[in-house]
Amino acid sequence: MAEVAKRWRAQGGAVVEPTPASVDQLLRVHTPAHIDRIAGTAGRSVALDPDTFTSEATADIACLAAGATATAVDIVMGQHGRACLALVRPPGHHAEADRAMGFCFYNNVAVAAAHARARGVPRVANVDYDVHHGNGTQHIFDADPAVLYLSVHQFPFYPGTGAADEVGRDAGRGFTVNVPLDAGATDEDYREVFHGIVLPVLRQFAPNLLLVSAGFDAHARDPLGGMQLTTGAFAAMTAELRGLAEECCEGRVVLVTEGGYDLEALGDSLDGVIGALTAPRAEPFWPPASLEPRRGRAAVARATRALAPFWALP
């Protein structure tokens, strides 16, 4: 992470030390019992579920990760055209309101979205391109029409949620957008999904702030995922989203790191993302197409059927 911070500085970015999330910030998205449970692990190693363990420092570091996302929101809302990268560990998008899971303790991006809403931001969008579906983020906001959650992920896969027909509930119906992709999806498939679903929905929602759950475990070299993305695809997706933010919300975009478990692929992909965020213009240079996007087309067709009552899609 220190090396990535150096690269960010080298591209002209400022590095700001985070402050821990306050209890009030955490309570906007988590139950009091959950906050107490995580705080109670301080100084101890505890197994919270079969793959989510604390260390002695986890309680403090998880608060810093969540606080970093709120700090990033404050930065971008204070200056037009500002992009921010919240470079955090542990990740957050699997954390439910009342429990930790999937390496996640507090839902960092949900804390950011709720913080923005508390600041008076009318509409917040969260695009999640981690290989895993962000079940926690979806469930926290699935009845809230002011927070659009849009996920592109491998399916079926952990955590088992994220089918195309999961579109939200009550007043939030239509504001959960899932685009599940079959394992083996390539750059071409993701480009198809971005142009067929992600960008058209975002333009219609017209967010005032864009949050990105930036996971890098869809990389072809990642040991936990089953996708085939190249390093360049992460820069291209980020550039597409930055360009959308320039259209809709005066460039206000915050990226929050999620998964990514091949260290070389993670570092290279973060380099590309930093370049996409700091370049003079958002240029989505997708890697040259070499395969037909059959998985992407199938995913777009499934999502279009589920979303037709809510959004006008190509």
Helix content: 40-55%
N-to-C span: 40 Å
SSE sequence, one letter per element: HHHEEHEHEHEEHEHEHH
Total number of helical segments?
Answer: 10
Instruction: Please identify the structural class as seen in this structure.
Output: alpha/beta
Number of DSSP strand runs: 8
Largest sheet: 6 strands, parallel
Overall mean confidence score, pLDDT:
94
Q: What percentage of the residues does DSSP assign to strands (E)?
A: 5-15%
* Integer-rounded radius of gyration: 18 Å
Which residues sit in consecutive blocks of at least 5 with pLDDT less than 50?
A: none
Shape: globular
Strand order of the largest sheet: 3-8-7-4-5-6
Description:
With 314 residues, the protein is of the alpha/beta class. Helix content is 40%, strand content 12%. It contains ten helices and eight strands. The strands form two sheets. The protein has a six-stranded parallel beta sheet with strand order 3-8-7-4-5-6, sandwiched between helices. Strands 1-2 form a two-stranded antiparallel sheet. Strand 7, helix 8 and strand 8 (253-257) form a beta-alpha-beta unit. Helix 4 packs across helix 5 (108-118), helix 7 (187-205) packs parallel to helix 10 and helix 8 runs parallel beside helix 9. The longest helix is centred in the N-terminal third of the chain and has 20 residues, at 58-77. The radius of gyration is 18 Å and the shape is globular. It starts with a helix and ends in a 7-residue tail after the last helix. The model has no long low-confidence stretch (mean pLDDT 94).
Brief digest:
Helices cover 40% and strands 12% of the residues. It has helices at 2-10, 23-27, 32-39, 58-77, 108-118, 135-141, 187-205, 231-248, 263-278, 294-307, and strands spanning 47-49, 52-53, 83-86, 124-128, 147-154, 176-181, 209-214, 253-257.
